[in-house]
Structures are given as structure tokens and as C-alpha cells.
Amino acid sequence: GFLRAPGKHHQGGSLDLHTGTGLAALEAAGLKDGFDKLARYEGAVFTVQDAQGGNTFTTSPGEGDEERPEIDRGQLRDLLLGSLPPSRVRWGKTLSAVEPGASGGWVLRFADGSAETGFRLVVGADGASSAVRPVITSAKPTYSGKTYIEGRFSHSNPQYAAALEMVGPGNSAAIGAGRVLVVQQMSDRTYRMYAGIEEPDTSRTRAGGDLDFTTEVEKPRAVLLSLFADWAPHLRAFIEHAEGPWRVWPLYSFTADAFEGSAWTRAPGVTLLGDAAHVALPNGEGVNAAMLDALRLFECLTAELGKQGEAFDAEADAAAIEHAVAAYETEMLKRASEHVDDGIMMNDMMYQADGAERMVAMFKQFAEGAGQS
């Protein structure tokens, strides 16, 4: 695989892996035991409240048949990369474009001016700004009108005790009209905060905007606090005391029509998975959807290639890979459309005045369906 230089990409906070998707992929890769050494099963607890601290509801770990253990993104990435021989990863390679080769196949062109060829299959797992995607579709994710601003709480932060009491080992979301405040615990027991705001464009968070945290903190903090002026003091306190490093995270998404009709074409020898294939708004399923993509692609490839004889036949090999990828994409695209729609629905709910009430009702329905009281 070709990856950018290690440490150059923000790894984000904590995420939860689910039975049948992310956890199933780890099982198939023989990495479940390694995951369990890092996973926080007690972190599968989620607290919801409204902007005034009402409509509070907390889920319990282990509700229903599905496990949802937490792990830091960086830990999961290291676990996956650590399972590969070092020779299988080429660092410092930022992909710029994928082009047809003069004699067939595909040429990968990198930002450092180098190029690579000779691949049986190019799998674009290069995220929301995928350089592989244009080979297959002209669809591009668009700004959703929502942005997260991330801060942190160390153990010595004056707000740490409040985070421990409100959030515990898991996650919390406070929901109000046009605003949301998410707080989550990390593996080192520090906390991350994500203050979500609705903005029509990203001008305020870009360089020079009044929510630009790159060179100044207190002025944009005051502006951010003004956007939460009518929220309860115990929730505003998280913004008041949050530490850096700060990160602004504009939320982008596809729409479901990106997967319909001729919007998606087959390009023999190329496919996509994860955010490269289906950028969605946060809905708790992003990494799980990506890992399920990888698992399903692996299963389709091994099923088709397993039919080949011992002697390698390039034409038969290419045909088998094409059959496998076509089968994978048929199933993946249906899931992708549902995943994108679910993200849009979830985020629409999370920015409504009655969003907390609606989310609590949803959690209670899930609990009742699982036989929980």
C-alpha cells in the first residue's frame, strides 16, 4: 500500500466497532485478540441530553446482541498496519492521480513526481478527497452546512471532573437547535470535545475568520461561546475550558444519488472502499462500513480467484478479478446509499430543537426491541 508520511494526518478521536461489520473484519484478519487488548468494552455507553440538560438518557454497555467496544483511531490504525510486513507499505507517497497506462493497466502518479504501474487491482482507500475516485465517478462530496470544532481536556483541566461525571468511559451528546456538543473519553482517560455548529459555508473557520483557531484561541472561543449563549452553564463550561490542539472539521457528504444509474461506472482493475466510495456524515458507522467493504472485497476476490488453476493465466486472472469486483460493488453500492442516507437523517435530527427527545425515543425503542428495560 502507498501511504502519506506517518504522523502527518490527524487521527481523530475514539470510535466504536460493531458486531457483524468492524469486529467481523478483525476476526477474519486474525486481529480480534490484539484488538481486545486495546478495546474499551466499558466505553459502549452513550448519554444524551438537550441544551438545558433535560431529556437525559444513558445507554448501557452490552444492550442487545451487538457489541460496540471503543478504541482510539490511532490505536486501530497501528493495529492494522502492524499486521503487515513492513515491505508491504510505502511511506511518504501522496497519490495525485490515477491514469490509464499506455499499454493497459493503470499508472499511479504521486506528489513527489514518481509513478508506479503493474497492478492487478488498484483499491482506492484514500478517503474523502480520493484521487482514485475520479476514475469511477465524477461525484464529489459537498459541504453539509455543519462543522465540528474540536478541543480537549487533560487530566489537570478544571472541567475534567465534570467530564468524568457526565460522560464516564463513553460518549455524550447534548443537542439543541442548530448546535450540538459531543464529549468522548479516550484510551488515556482524557476527553475530546466536538462543538457542532450550522454554518452555510466554511468562511468563518478558514484563515482570518472569526472561528479560526490556528493562530488565536480566546477570540474564536468567545465567538463559539456566543453561538451557545442560550445553553445551560454546565454545557457551556466545556467550551470555556477546552484546551488545544484545536481542530476545525467541516462535515462533507455524498447524497444517495451518487450511486444511482450512470453516476458510478465500472473501471476494470480499479475499485473503491470506505470514504473514497461513500463519504457520509457521522452516524457511528463510518469505520465499520469501511472495514465491511474490505471484508466483502476480500471474500469476493478469494471466491473468484480460488476457481483458477495452479498455472497463472493473466487473462483469466483479470476476468476473475473483474467478476469479483463487480459482485463486490453491486452489494457495496446498496449499502453505501443507505449509509449516506442514514448519516443525513442522523445529523438532521441532531441539530433540531427536539433532537434530544427524538434520539432518546430512538434509543428506548432499540432497548425495548432488544428486550432491555
From TrEMBL:
Positions of the FAD-binding domain: 267-309
Alphabetical UniProt keywords: FAD, Flavoprotein, Monooxygenase, Oxidoreductase
PANTHER family: FAD DEPENDENT OXIDOREDUCTASE DOMAIN-CONTAINING PROTEIN (PTHR46972:SF1), MONOOXYGENASE ASQM-RELATED (PTHR46972)
InterPro entries from the UniProt entry: FAD-bd (IPR002938), FAD/NAD-bd_sf (IPR036188)
GO MF annotation terms: FAD binding; monooxygenase activity
Entry's transmembrane regions: none
Pathway involvement of the protein, from the record: Secondary metabolite biosynthesis
Matching SUPFAM superfamilies: FAD/NAD(P)-binding domain
Species whose genome carries this gene: Xylaria hypoxylon
Protein name: FAD-binding domain-containing protein
